[in-house]
Amino acid sequence: ADQEVCEVPPSLSAKVVGSFAYLTVKDRMPTILTKVIDTLHRNKDKFFEEYGKEGIEAEKQTIALLSKLRNEMQTDKPVVPLTDGLSDAETWNRYLHGHQQSEGDQESVSWFKSPWLYVECYMYRRIQEALWLNPPISDYDVFNEGKTLSFLESQRAVMTLCTYLEDIKKKREQLSKKELFEYFRKLLQVSVWGNKCDLSISAGKDNSQKTDAVDSLCSLQPFILVDDSEVIWSALTSGKSQGPPDNSAARRLDIVLDNASFELITDLVLADFLVCTGIIHEVRFHGKSFPWFVSDVTANDFHWTIRQTMATNHRWISKCGVKWQSHLKAGVWSYHDHPFWTLPHEFCEMAAAAPDLYAALQGSDLVLFKGDLNYRKLTGDRYWDHAISFGTALRGFGPAPLCALRTLKGNTQVGLQPGEGEKLSSEEPDWMSSSKYAVIQFYNPKSEQ
């Protein structure tokens, strides 16, 4: 059905002056680095209290490395190998070497000339390197303050959403399949619009969720460009599970997380709804193994968020938190942070680069990919024609039925109706990067066979 024969288009890159990739490398990424430097500087008393002179020295050295990194970026220097000897450094360096060989020139792999997806991931890995080379502050999360603030600023929205979930749970025995689907669709949309709260896009400026996420769904409906909710629902509720044959009813959902704070809450609420209604029996959450793209979820963020909800004095939020903790205790929920998620690879390379992760995902009934970076990695962050199918852009990636939930913040979007992308471009030149639009896009590799 979906095997359109097509040339693989080139990667988005900052080569194109004035493009979103160009503006990101030129302005947004240096701004993020400046904020990181500022955060370290502001916390130097804390480092002194904890580690004495050694802490201050480490802070100085880290800032020196990050300032050097910012300079390399702004002057379009060649990308250099990692030197921290961490377990993923060799993979990164091999990846760089592969780029240098295909370009035939070491100098040509640089900040503005190379794929935007690669250099942006590389920047976050270099931030990690700067910290790692400077114990005792190696484990410091330079983005933690922003994530915490964003969570605290979203409390009203969290309250409304948890109350809404408890309301559904009270009447779940009486709900018809059609009503269940309606609630599922709403919570799926809440989860997709939760993706607006992205701190790497606002370069760390507050953009927490202040409004009632459920109330605003109606007005946001026209901005969902692709809505495969019904197909996703039938993938979750019909037929046999991918699970072990002796337990064909046990269904598993995997959620590849994006941002911490309010977006994470929307993901936990969706997962809880699916477990409490018996639609799903196991949820595996996948996050990042170190701080990444400013607001991405790490293990620390994941567990902190659940502890915070348990400790709050709002009865429905804390009730949710207690339930979520018990899902984790019972093994119904689990958190995983495979190193592949913080590598520069497109997902079509996962089977070769991380066969263990690919095999693990094959046991899922549905893999939900949250957010923009995951979408860019799913489609390779390339200049695809907007009307090319999602399946084609995945280039063979399909461990299980999968779904992308994203608000558009980067210049790649596939699976639209012919002419729709062009029409949007003529009316709103920045439609692909303003996060005004969203997609709920499904692909089933089994339907290809």
UniProtKB/TrEMBL annotation:
One Gene Ontology term, aspect cellular component: nucleus
Catalytic reaction annotation: beta-D-fructose 1-phosphate + H2O = D-fructose + phosphate; L-glutamyl-[protein] + S-adenosyl-L-methionine = [protein]-L-glutamate 5-O-methyl ester + S-adenosyl-L-homocysteine; beta-D-fructose 6-phosphate = dihydroxyacetone + D-glyceraldehyde 3-phosphate
Ranges where the Damage-control phosphatase ARMT1-like metal-binding domain occurs: 24-424
Coiled coil: none
Enzyme nomenclature, EC number: 2.1.1.-, 3.1.3.-
Gene3D superfamilies: 1.20.930.60, Uncharacterised protein PF01937, DUF89, domain 3
Keyword terms: Hydrolase, Manganese, Metal-binding, Methyltransferase, Nickel, S-adenosyl-L-methionine, Transferase
Highest taxon in the source lineage: Eukaryota
GO aspect biological process, one term: methylation
GO molecular function: fructose 6-phosphate aldolase activity; fructose-1-phosphatase activity; metal ion binding; protein-glutamate O-methyltransferase activity
Pfam families named among the record's database cross-references: ARMT1-like_dom
Required co-factors: Mn(2+); Ni(2+)
Similarity comment: Belongs to the damage-control phosphatase family. Sugar phosphate phosphatase III subfamily.
Domain notes: Subfamily III proteins have a conserved RTxK motif about 40-50 residues from the C-terminus; the threonine may be replaced by serine or cysteine.
Function comment: Metal-dependent phosphatase that shows phosphatase activity against several substrates, including fructose-1-phosphate and fructose-6-phosphate. Its preference for fructose-1-phosphate, a strong glycating agent that causes DNA damage rather than a canonical yeast metabolite, suggests a damage-control function in hexose phosphate metabolism. Has also been shown to have O-methyltransferase activity that methylates glutamate residues of target proteins to form gamma-glutamyl methyl ester residues. Possibly methylates PCNA, suggesting it is involved in the DNA damage response.
Name of the protein in question: Sugar phosphate phosphatase
Species of origin: Tetraodon nigroviridis (Spotted green pufferfish)
